[in-house]
Amino acid sequence: MTISTTHVPATDLGFLLVKHPDRVQSFDTTGGTAHVWYPEAGAERCTVALLLDVDPVALARPSKGHRSPDSFSLGRYVNDRPYAASSLLTVALGKVFRSALKGASRDRPELVDVPLPLEIKVAALPCRGGAAIVERLFGPLGWTVTAEPVPLDPAFPAWGDSRYVQLTLTGRQKLSDALNHLYVLLPVLDDAKHYWVSADEVDKLLRAGEGWLPEHPAKELIARRYLANRRSLAQSALERLRAADELEAIAEPPAAEELAEVEAAERRKPLVRYRQEAVLAALAESGATRVLDLGCGSGALLLRLLADRRYTEIVGADVSSVNLQLAERRLKLDRLPERQRNRITLIQSALTYHDDRLAGYDAAVLMEVIEHVDEVRLPALERAVFGHASPATVIVTTPNIEYNGRYDGLAGGHLRHDDHRFEWTRAQFAAWAARVADAYGYGVDLRPVGEDDPEVGSPTQLAYFRKAA
Amino acid sequence: MNLDIPELSLIALIGISGSGKSTFARRHFAPTEVLSSDAFRAMVADDENDQSASKDAFEALHHVAAIRLRAGRRVVVDATNVQKHARAELVKLARAHDVLPVAIVLDTPEAIAWERTEARADRDFGRHVLRRQQQDLRRSLRDLGREGFRKVHIVADPDDVTITYEKAWNDKRDITGPFDIIGDVHGCRSELETLLTTLGWRLERDEAGRPVNAVHPEGRRAVFVGDLVDRGPDSPGVLRLVMGMTAAGTALCVPGNHEQKLLRKLRGRKVSVTHGLAETLEQLAVEPPEFVDAAATWIDGLVSHLRLDGGRLVVAHAGLKEEFHGRASGRVRAFCLYGETTGETDEYGLPVRYPWANDYRGSAMVVYGHVPNPKPEWVNNTICLDTGCVFGGQLTALRYPEKALVSVPAEKTHYEPVKPLVEATPARDATTLDLADVTGRRHIRTDYGTVLVDAENAAAALEVMSRFAVDPRYLLWLPPTMSPPSTSRLDGYLEHPAEAFADYRAAGVERVVCEEKHMGSRAVVLVCRDAATAARRFGVDDASSGAVYTRTGRPFFADPALTETLLARVRAAATPAFGELDTDWLLLDCELLPWSAKATSLIKGQYAAVGAAARAALPAALRALDAGLDRGLDLAALRDRTAARATNADAFTDAYRRYCWPVDGLDGIQLAPFMALASEGASHAARDHGWHLEHCDRLVAGDPDLFRRTERRTVDLSDEASVEAATAWWRELTGAGGEGIVIKPCDGLLHRANGKLVQPGIKCRGREYLRIIYGPDYTEPRHLDRLRDRGLHRKRNLALREHGLGLAALDAVAAGAPLWRVHELVFAVLALESEPTDPRL
User: Fold this and answer.
1) Structural domain tally of chain A?
2) Helix, strand or coil for residue B586?
3) Strands B442-446 and B449-453, sheet pairing
4) What region holds the Polynucleotide kinase-phosphatase ligase domain (chain B) (predicted)?
5) Which of A72, B8, B398, B583 has the greatest count of CB atoms below 10 A from its CB?
6) Cα distance from A255 to chain B (closest Cα, Å)?
7) Contact call for A51 and B621, based on CB within 8 A
8) Do A417 and A285 have their domain in common?
9) Are residues A298 and A176 in the same domain?
C-alpha cells in the first residue's frame, strides 16, 4: 500500500506519520513484519510505502488454546493473506501509524486538521461484492475511486475476474481520516477477519469511525461486515450509532444490498407462514398429540408446536448437527421449565435409515424435506417413514415446480434451492403420494398451500396421509 | 451331593442369615458371577448392613443381573431370598432373559446360623429376626417349583457339594458339520429321497423297501428344519426315514409347528384338524400303533432350536432372533415354532409375520423354513429353505459351510396352497439399513483388527452419507487415506522417494512398485454388465448400471446420464475382463482427470485467487522497492526476497494450471485405473500389483481415449541401481509437472510384516506440486525448516485403520455378507475421514 501527497512541502508527510523519509523501518506485527519506506520523497510529491511481509507458516499454525473451527482446513495453509490487503494490513497500519491515525502530531500539529491532497494505492484489495462496492464505501467519503478488477487467471479467461481490485483513491482528506477510512473499510471489503470478533471490536469501530461513520449511507453494511456478521454485536453497534445521531427521527433506510436481502426474505415469508399454518391445521385435524418433525431444520415448526399445549410429545429430527444446535438455541431448550422441556426431544437421524426411536408416534411432518433427498433414495425414505416409523398420520409438503414461473429468476427450469434434488409438478407429486399410500396402507388427500393459481396451482403442495383403519 | 445346573442360568441362593450362602458362593462360583445383596448395600450406602438401603441395593443388583443375563453370563444371587416376593423378582428376571431360574436352598439349622451371627461384630439383630426368616423359609420350600424355579436343590451339608453344569439341549456347538440342511418336507417322501440322492446320500431300506436310514460317504450330517409331516402323500414315510437317521446319528432335526400339532393330537389334545393334518392322521391310521407311539416320543424329544458348529450356525423351524440363540423359555420355543407375528392377519386369513430377519444383525447364520417362498433368499445372514415342495414348488437343501443351494422339483402339486406361492411373502427387504448399524461410538471388529469410531465422527459421516452419497448398495468400498513418506532432510525438499523406500525397508518390504500419481480426483467405478445385473446383484432398480463415486461416496457427476455414458465406455473396455473373472460386475479404483472436472470451484476460489492476489501485489511492491533502492535506501534484502516470492507465485500458478483443462460432457475426461478391487465372489486385494496393472492396461488398450495408462517402475529395495533409477524417474516426472508417485509393496494390499499390515501405499509428491499444498513460498529455507516438523503418526495410523476397514468391506462383498455389514465398514471409513488431521499430509 502506498500513500502519496502533493502538499507542499510533501515531505511533511514524514512528520505526520512520524517516519523519516530517508530511513527504512521495520516493525513486528501480528502475522509478520511491516516495512515502511519512501519510494519518493521530493518537495512536490512524497510517497510512503507500507509492505506487510506475512509469515505464512506462522500464520497457519493455530495458536495454543485458540483453535478456530477451520484449524484443519487447507484454506489455512494456502491463502491470499501474504498478498492481499486484509485485516492483517490494517492491524499493521494501526501499529505503525498509530499517532497519525489518532490525529496527533508533535512536529506538525497545524497540519493535522488540514485536508491534504492524497493519493492512496492498494495493490491487491480483496472485496466481496465486486468493484462497485468499493465506490459505495469510499465514494460518500469524498474519495475519487478507481478500482481495476484483477483477472482470476489470464490462462483461463472463462474464469472471469477475481475478487481483487487494484485500488486508487484520490482526494483531499485529513490524513487521520484517510487512515481511519482504510482501517475500517479494508476489512469490511475483505469481509473475512483473521481474528475472532470480540465485544471490544464494537468500541474499536466506533472510535475509528468517529466523525464519518454515523453519516455514511452504508453504515449498516459496514458495521455488519466489520463485526464479522455477528448479529448481536452488529445490532448493539447499530443501536449505539443510532443513539449518536439521536436527532434523526426516522431510521436510516437499509443499504441497498441489505434491502435486497430483506425484500427477498419478505417475498418468501408469507409462503413460509402459509406452509406452517397448513401443516399445523392438518396436524390438529389428525388429533395427534405425539408428533415427529422429520427434517426439523433449525426448528421453526418446532417452535410453533411447542407453543401449542395439545402436543404432549414433540420430536425434532434432523441429519445436520448444526441445524440441531441452531434449533436448540432457537427453542432456548436450556432455559425452558422442566415440564416444557420434557415435551420436546431433538435427535440426529437420517430418513434413509430405519430408526427405532421414531416408531410409535401419532404423526410425522416432513415439511420441505423430500426434495432434499435424491429421487432414487426416496424408496428408502418411504420404507423408513411409512413402513418403519409408521405413524397414523404423515404430512408431506414440497414445492410445486409449475409455480416457479411466477417467481422472478426461477423461469427456465431453475429450482428454488441449490440443494433441491428435484421439484415436482402437481401430477408427479400426486402420483408419488398415491403410490406410497397404496404401498403402505394409507389414504391420502392433496391440498394446495398458498395462493392457488388457476393455471399453475399453489406454490407449495401438501399431502395428508392417514393410515387406513 | 451333586447339583445339576443348566450352564446358563440364574441361580438364587436361598437361606437365612448366617446359613453360609456367601461362603458357599465363594467356594463354587467365580467372584464375578456372584451378586451379593450385602455388597450392593455397601455400594449404594457405604454399609452392607444398612437395611434401609435394601430397596436401592436390590434395584442395582437386578440391573447388573439383567446386563449379565443379556450377555449370556451366569448370575448367582447371594441374598436371603426367603420371601416369596424377593424370589418372584428373580424368576421374572430370568424369564425376561429366557434363562432358567435355579434355586439352591442352604438348609442350615437355625442354631448354627445364630452362632455364626453372634460371632460377627457387625450383625446386631436379635434372634427373632432369624426365627422369622426360618419360618418364611419353611413356608417357601414346597412352593419353589411352582414359583417357576426349574431346578430346586436343597443342601443340608454345604461341605458335601459338587456342581455339574448341564449343557443346554440346544447346545450342539461341538458338532461342526459339514451339514446338508433340508427345508420343509411335508410328507414329500419321494422328493426327499431324490434330494438326498442328489446330495450324494446312500439310502438304506427295510425289507419292505422303505427307506429307514441314509448315510453320506463323506460323513455329512443332515439337519431337518421341521414340518416333515402334513399335507403331503407320505408323512409316515418321511418320519420313518428321519427318525432312522437321527437314531443312527446321521441327522439332526428341529420340530416344526406341524409336528407340534400332530403330537398334541396324538396325545389326545383337542386340535383343529386343518392344514393337512387330516392327511397325516389318515396315513398314520394304517401304521402299527408302536410306530405311532415311537413317532410321538421322538417328536416330544426334539429340541426347538440347535446351535451348531461352534455357534456359527443356528437352525430353527421359523428362524430365531439373536437374543434368543441358546436360550430356553416358552417364548423362545414359540418363536422357533411359529416365528413372530404382528397380530394382524392378511387377506387370506393367515397371520402377518414380523420380518425379524430384516433386523437380524447376528454373526451366526440362521437357517429355517416355515414360510414358503418361490426361491430361497439370503437376508442378513439368514435363509429360509421352505420352497413349497408340497405345493408343487421345490424341496431345497443348503450345503453348509459351502452355502450352496441344491433343489429338486416337486413331482406334482400335492396340496393346493391357501394363497398362491408366488406372492406368498411380501418382497423381503434385505436392503434396509438401520441407524443403529452406524451411529454412536462403535468398536468395529474385522479380521484386520478392531477400529474405534467416535460418535461425533459417525454423526458427521451420517450427514454426508444420507444427503450426498450414492445408494449404499453401490457403495462397496471407500479409498483409505494415504500417508506421505517420512519427511526429507534434503535441501529444498519436503518429500523425496528415498524416505519412502527407507520406510518400506524398515517395515520389512523388499520389492515395491512405483506408480505414477495422476493429478485428478479419486474415482471409484462400479460397473455392471447392464442395469438388470445392477438390479439383481445390488438391488438398485433405477435403471442405472453402476456408479462412479468420489472418495466420500458422492456421485462424481451430477447428471446420471453422464455417469451412464461413462459406464458404457468402461463396460465396453471391461467386457473381456468380465469373462475372464467370471463376473457381471467390476469395482475399479481410479483417478479421474482433469482435476478441474470436479474441483473447479476449489481451484478458482482458493488456488487461482491466491495467484491473482500475488500477481497484483508483488509487481507493485517491487516497483516501490526499486524506487526506494534508487533513492539509496537499504532495501536490497527485502527486494530480493520479494522478487523470489514473485517467482514462487508464478511457479505456484503453473503448478495448478497443469491440472486444469476444459471438459464438455465426457470430452476431455480421462480415467486412470490402477486397481481392479473386486468382482463377483472375489476380493482382489490379495493379488499383486502386477496383476492389477495388467488388467488396467487392458482397459487402456480397449479405449485409449478414455483410459490413461499408469506408468510404473518396479524396485528391488536392496539394489541401489534399481532405487536410483526409480528416483531419477520421480525427478523426471515431477520436473515435468507430474504430481508424484505412489510407492506400494509389490505383493498387493495384503502385505504384512510381523503379522501386521503395512501401509498399502506411500505417496511421494513432487517439489513443485507441493506448492499447491504448502503454499507458493514453502521452498524458501526459512519456511521449509519449520514445515519439516510435521506429525505423520496420526496420518499413518488413520491410513492403516481405514485400509483394514476397506479390506474387510471387500471381503464382506465377496462373501455375500448382508448389506448392513458392508455398509457398517464403508460408513466407518467415511467417519474416520472426518477425524481432524493435517490436510497437507
Assistant:
1) 2
2) strand
3) antiparallel
4) 460-836
5) B398
6) 27
7) yes
8) yes
9) no
* Residue A63 shares a structural domain with residue A168: yes
- B517-537: string of b/e by CB count within 10 Å (b at 16+)? bbbbbbbbbbbbbebebbbeb
Predicted TM-score (pTM) of this structure: 0.76
Q: What are the φ/ψ torsions at residue B142 (nearest 5 degrees)?
A: -75, -15
Q: Which pairing describes strands B151-155 and B365-368: parallel, antiparallel, or unpaired?
A: unpaired
CB nearest A164 (choices: B612, B624, B641): B612
Q: For residue A58, what are the domain limits?
A: 2-196
Q: Report the 10 Å Cβ neighbour count for A246.
A: 7
Confidence of residue A88 (pLDDT cuts 50, 70, 90): confident
ipTM: 0.81
Contact B106, B81 (CB under 8 A): no
Residue A91 counted as domain residue: yes
Domain boundary residue among A140, A167, A196? A196
Contact between A465 and A437 (Cβ < 8 Å): yes
C-alpha distance from residue B198 to each of B201, B203, B407 (Å): 7, 11, 9
Instruction: Please tell me the predicted confidence (pLDDT) of residue B53.
Output: 92
What residue of B is the nearest CA neighbor of A22? B633
Whether residues A160 and A296 fall in one domain: no
* Cβ within 8 Å, pair A376-B542: yes
Tell me which chain A residue has its CA closest to the CA of residue B456: A321
Domain boundary among A147, A166, A196: A196
Size of interface A-B (CB pairs under 8 A): 191
Using alpha carbons, select from B31, B54, B57, B32 the residue that is nearest to residue B43.
Answer: B57
Q: Are residues A32 and A127 in the same domain?
A: yes
pLDDT in the model for residue B581 = 95
Cell of B417: 396352497
CB distance B462–A84 less than 8 Å? no
Contact B448, B455 (CB under 8 A): no
* Chain A positions in Cβ-Cβ contact with residue B431 (cut-off 8 Å): 380
Report which of B465, B831, B467 is spatially closest to residue A295, judged by C-alpha positions: B467
Asked if A460 and A314 sit in the same domain, the reply is yes
A285-289's contacts with Cβ under 8 Å and 24+ in sequence apart are A285/A464, A286/A362, A286/A363, A286/A392, A286/A393, A286/A395, A286/A464, A286/A466, A287/A362, A288/A361, A288/A362, A288/A363, A288/A391, A288/A392, A288/A393, A289/A313, A289/A362
* Residue scoring higher pLDDT (A85 or A38): A38
Do B544 and A377 count as a contact with CB atoms less than 8 A apart?
no
**Residue B684 grid cell:** 482382489
What is d(CA B42, CA B460) in angstroms, rounded to the nearest whole number?
A: 43
**Hey, are the CB atoms on B775 and A78 less than 8 Å from each other?**
yes
- How far B27 CA sits from the closest chain A CA (Å)? 44
Asked if residue A174 and residue A25 are part of one domain, the reply reads: yes
Let me know if residue A15 belongs to a domain.
Answer: yes
| Contacts (Cβ under 8 Å, ≥6 apart) of B430 | B358, B377, B378, B379, B380, B539, B818, B819
Is A77's CB within 8 Å of B462's CB?
no
- The residue count of chain A comes to 469
Per-residue confidence (pLDDT) for residue A409, from 0 to 100: 66
Which residues in chain B show pLDDT less than 50?
A: 423-428
Minimum CA–CA partner of A420 in chain B? B467
In a domain, A20, yes or no: yes
| CA pair distance B698, B709, nearest whole angstrom | 10
Residues in B touching A39 (Cβ below 8 Å): 623-625, 627-628, 631
Separation of CA B478 from chain center: 16
Q: Do A276 and A189 belong together in one domain?
A: no
Whether B379 contacts B428, CB under 8 Å = yes
Identify the pLDDT of residue B27.
93
CATH label of the domain that carries residue A354: 3.40.50.150
Report CB contact under 8 Å: B610, A83: yes
Q: Given an 8 Å threshold on Cβ–Cβ distance, is A153 in contact with B612?
A: yes
Taking only the tens place, the pLDDT of each residue in A302-312 is 999 999 999 99
H/E element, A5: strand A2-5
